[in-house]
Request: fold
Amino acid sequence: MKDAELTDEQKAELEKILEGVEPTEYHPKTDDELKKIARDLADGKIWTDRHCDHPGQITTCFCNGALYGFWRLGQHYKKKHKNFYGAYPGNLLERIRVLFPDRQKVLHLFSGTLSPELNSIRFDVSDEFKPDICDHIYNIKDHAEVLSDRDIIIADPPYEKTDFERYGAKPFSKRRVIKDLSEVVQPGTFLCWLDTRLMQYSKSQWIHRGDIGVGVSSNHRVRLWTLLECV
Ligand SMILES: C[S@@+](CC[C@H](N)C(=O)[O-])C[C@H]1O[C@@H](n2cnc3c(N)ncnc32)[C@H](O)[C@@H]1O
Reply:
């Protein structure tokens, strides 16, 4: 947005947000470097990476309590399970994890190929990759007792009707799932939901904490991490 398009009130608000903050360029190439950036984010610094033509680079900014950005992963990515349709590309999962360094009790929803991990619970309807909980998402509330201590949920559901077909699954109401999740976890728990649509949720159950777009390479769908915090 050009300066001329900002009202005086908006300019004052922007100045307040930017007070004492030096925009910085980062070019993270290793997980340690990404973690350092995550710590800067947690400290409330605004940062930006303006050159996003390398898969290890990120464009994100933290603003007024919410995180916004776009990650262009590029086509030089590898999948741990190349044959599994919809597996996280490259370091996409690691990227979202390092944004929440203090959150280690993860619920991986729609976990697919993910391996077992200390402190994490994997949930999927298919038993192909031996999830910790194998059930239909509509039964999530039946597992409330073991899931209530989770401090972050990372969810990668099938996106569209054709994606559901690839898993031999029937489309479900994501709105219902997001509501059910708010009844399973404690206030303060984060939900990171990856999808191709803006998700529907009730403001009485979730606070919006940001959006991060994800692009892989030409002619692929653009996805979005929606970040919410349980009320
Ligand atoms: C996009 S894939 C997730 C893949 C995962 N990100 C990975 O890296 O392997 C979607 C997953 O949702 C699961 N799924 C589909 N319908 C489901 C349902 N009703 N309840 C629970 N899981 C479901 C599928 O079995 C599939 O593993």
Q: What stands out?
A: Confidence is low (pLDDT under 50) at residues 21-25, 44-58. Helices lie at 8-18, 31-42, 92-98, 144-147, 161-166, 174-184. The first helix runs from residue 8 to 18. The pocket of S-adenosylmethionine is lined by residues 84, 86-88, 110, 112-114, 124-126, 136-137, 156-158, 167, 169, 172 (CB under 6 Å).
